[in-house]
Amino acid sequence: MNGFSEEITLEGHIIDSLILPKVWGAVMDLGGEFEIQELRIGRRKDEPSFMRLKISADSDKRLHLILNELQDFGAELVSREDVHTEPVPADGVLPDDFYSTTHLPTQVRLNGKWVDVQATEMDLVIVVDRANARARMIPMADVRQGEQIAVGHGGIRVIPMQRSRSREIFSFMGSDVSSEKPKRLVIEEIARQMKETRARKGKILVVAGPAIVHSGAGQYLARIIHAGYVQALFGGNAIAAHDVESALLGTSLGTALHSGEAVEGGHRHHMVAINAIRRAGGLRQAVEQGILREGIMYECICQNVELVLAGSVRDDGPLPDVITDMGEAQRRMRAAVQGAEMALMIATMLHSIATGNMLPASTKIVAVDINPAVVTKLADRGTFQALGLVTDAELFMRELAEALGVNGV
Fold it and tell me: Residue 288 domain-assigned?
């Protein structure tokens, strides 16, 4: 190959973090070639390595495709140019060659200096303010005509996650998904991480699906919230409606939680529960009026947990607290994830995927579902910070509450 080439550098723990073989694999998979120009290997575990590579391709288009892929692994162009930008042609419309962000820390070069890009999130774009030497990531829908958007790959660098120097569960298990893991040991380690996070007043986010209530695990989540281990909770109309149904009527989907037997007329119980909250004016009003006295939603209100309930087209009611405008729901979720150090995603695929896309790679994620495919999708985020568990929601929540020492409300 000739005519189309660029030199890149990689620096950090690129060998033991498996970044180097991923780079080589990406180049070959995309039809390119590489040539090592310089290599310095760290001699100790705390000493970084450095490599300079020449990347070649048979066309400029293929070379750009390869370079864009390599940036996700922290590759930096040797050429020291500032970030390229183009103006937004119309509100909500991007220039053709826009740069699509990852969930990794990112920098852009402005006036010869590297500047941190704020509000890290995947699948956004970078708005550059050259006058004030600032840059931030924003959703496509929020761009406004005339704003300068980063384009191409020059003057942009991504800081990849490095494997932790210490041996902890999020580093040695990584995103491996299996139903054969020693669950009790894993859950005990998750509880330890939660205790440490709580002790330093860190933020823990829970993304909860209705199976938590259906399986009888709602009581354990309520205890965990009551004990102060949850600062934000995401879900939909279903988790809230069935939690309220459980609190008011002792059923979930019309099935008695104490016996597992269907209750006569139980098919309308969730509607009764929704109607009670609508009559009160909302969840907080129901708590204040003494209508709602226990459960997940009750504890969220009492403990001032940041609650974001995003609706869907299939919702009954919905509850007054459910956000039916998807754009507004995304904005509320995006604001609420800021500062989250841990995220527990339990038995809900769509809300968890949406949340995972909003979280930076530094957030430790625990993905729990009975379906291995769901766990794989949630845990495989290109980071050592995601842990997947294939297990029943009730088992996980019960053992987590036990490991946290939460015995009752």
Answer: yes
- Using alpha carbons, list the distances in angstroms from residue 50 to 37, 45, 107, 248, 312: 11, 14, 19, 62, 48
pLDDT tens for each residue of 149-180: 999 888 898 887 766 555 455 544 444 555 55
Residues of the chain short of pLDDT 50, as ranges, are 1, 167, 171-175
CA–CA–CA angle 217, 275, 259 (5° rounding): 35
Q: What is the pLDDT of residue 175?
A: 46
CATH number at residue 19: 3.30.70.2690
Nearest to 118 by CA among 360, 373, 400, 298: 360
Q: Who's near 25: CB < 8 A, 6+ residues apart?
A: none
- Tally of structural domains, the chain: 3
* Alpha-carbon gap, residue 84 to 66, rounded angstroms: 18
Report the helix count and the strand count for the chain, using DSSP H and E.
14, 19
pLDDT for 219? 96
According to the model, what pLDDT value does residue 194 have? 96
What DSSP character marks residue 254? T
- Among 79, 102, 131, which residue terminates a domain? 79
> Would you say residue 264 lies in a domain?
yes
Between CA 210 and CA 272 the distance in angstroms is 17
Strands 306-309 and 232-235: parallel
Name the domain boundary from 79, 110, 133. Answer: 79
* Tokens 């769509």, residue located: 350
